[in-house]
Request: fold
Amino acid sequence: MFKKITALFLLAAIICTALSGCGYEYADDLELSREYSREFAGSELNVYNWGEYISDGSDDMLDVNREFEKLTGIHVNYTTFESNESMYSQLKSGGVSYDIIIPSDYMIERLKNEDMLTKIDVSSLKNYGYIYDEYKNLFYDENNEYSVPYNVGMVGIIYNPTLIGEPEQSWRTLWDEKYRDMSLNFSNPRDGFMTAQMILGQDLNTTNKSDWKAAADLLKEGKDVLQSYVMDEIYGKMETGEAAIGPYYAGDYLTMLDNNEDLKFFYPKEGTNIFVDAICVPKSVKHLDAAMLYIDFLLEPRIALDNAEYIGYASPNRAVVENPDYYYYGNEILYPQPQDTPPVQYYHDIDPEIRKYYENLWIDLKLY
Reply:
């Protein structure tokens, strides 16, 4: 009998996992600013986003995708990527069609230049007015035809003072012999090069090959000090103390801080990258109307608030930033005062010849 009961519980657990329906309680007070049609119920939406980049129902927060499914009857197929470059490769291969993607600014510019995006009519989005004007008409989408801002952030350095003390607030700390085998760097070329370019005082969008070569040479000089190149692996390494210092996005630091209160953060004095990640619709879209509903849903004040609190990035949505109940309301890391804001540069799409050049330098670096 015990074995039978155990087997029944095991079967129930398997069914729960398969259906992803156990344990989550839908919101019964989900106040929305518009009504959402069910005319597309039964259709599917393929969403491709960064890892850890949407409120998923954990920690008593909303499961955004499931709330959207309940509201509209549209099933969300949700998959993740860990870098703009890996997302681009997947999209370029054409192996899978996506209806929604959320790339960063320079990648949006590249996708637009290569005619890989579908125009969207932002005037049809009831909640578009919540987006601050400062995040509209930016260089990668000057006429707001291809994207809707989702998150904003800057890159800084996370460190554990209990393991290494207080480092110099500079990108040079990643090259410091004192932190040998305890330091990390980015595993994607654009961010990895940025850490060296800032030290060298370069334009992050330089078209001078000698600049990229100098940055690659500097990265080679520091490679022996590094424990490893990482992307999302940094969470486990920094939270457990396996590594003690590494660069990453400010919002992710706040997520790591929840799991390791010893961690601290600074923006390097030389300056850093500022970025906007935005919602786009690729050419492979099969359900444009459903995609537009999904975009408007992400802009809803309640949805945007839960996303902002879960992700920990700065929000471009005024209904979030100006809400005194927002967990990160006035947070000095996400929303620094002008006198505390480091010099910043956006990444831009780069001439294909230069991009090919620095990508080959990056391959050489990783093999070095």
